[in-house]
Amino acid sequence: MPSARDRVLDAYETLLIEHGGAAITLDAVVAAAGVSKGGLLYHFASKEALAAGLLDRLRERSAADAEAIRSAPDGAVAYYVRTSAPGGASPGGLTRTYLAVLRLADSTAAGKAVRDALARVDADGYAALLDELHDPVLAWLAQLVGDGLYLRTLTGTPLPPDLGVDDLLDRMRQYVPRQA
Asked: Which of 17, 33, 113, 162 could bridge across to 11 with cysteines, CB 3.0–4.6 Å?
């Protein structure tokens, strides 16, 4: 069973995704998390602390995902592209947390911290791809392909008819060989 802190962050993510940052109150988070107001305040003394906790969660999940990219049996590029595509969300909740943080970016008070956290996620993925590819341009190209697929995942946009991630990876392997 998730801890009270995790239940609060899970509820906060859900509210951000469904309603955006402007509509969220601490009372709404309490109700959604099924914790007392005191329980919420024990972990997060304010909305700012709650947002900071979500950004910490994003950084933690990003670091774990970067390690998964590095150790993926099929290689970093295949992992990055597959988990970026619709239906291939990264294990560990990174996709959901990322989407919630994007919704948090609407808040001007949290804007810089959100941009910094998103930049860290981007840097983690790029570094993991670079570890395999050893070429900054190829690592960036692989990341851009994954980012395009990720945008489709976040917006619910389907892949083109009769094409799938394996087709994309097969073609990419012609240009981005996996390094041993």
From this structure: 33
What's the pLDDT tens digit per position in 157-169?
A: 888 899 989 999 9
Identify whether residues 129 and 63 lie together within a single domain: yes
**Would you state the pLDDT for residue 178?**
64
Show the low-confidence residues of the chain (pLDDT under 50): none
Domain that holds residue 12: 1-45
pLDDT of residue 127: 96
9 with 65, same domain? no
* pTM, rounded to two decimals: 0.83
Q: Please give the pLDDT value at position 31.
A: 95
Same domain, 164 and 83: yes
Q: The CATH number of the domain where 39 resides is what?
A: 1.10.10.60
User: Does one domain contain both 87 and 120?
Assistant: yes
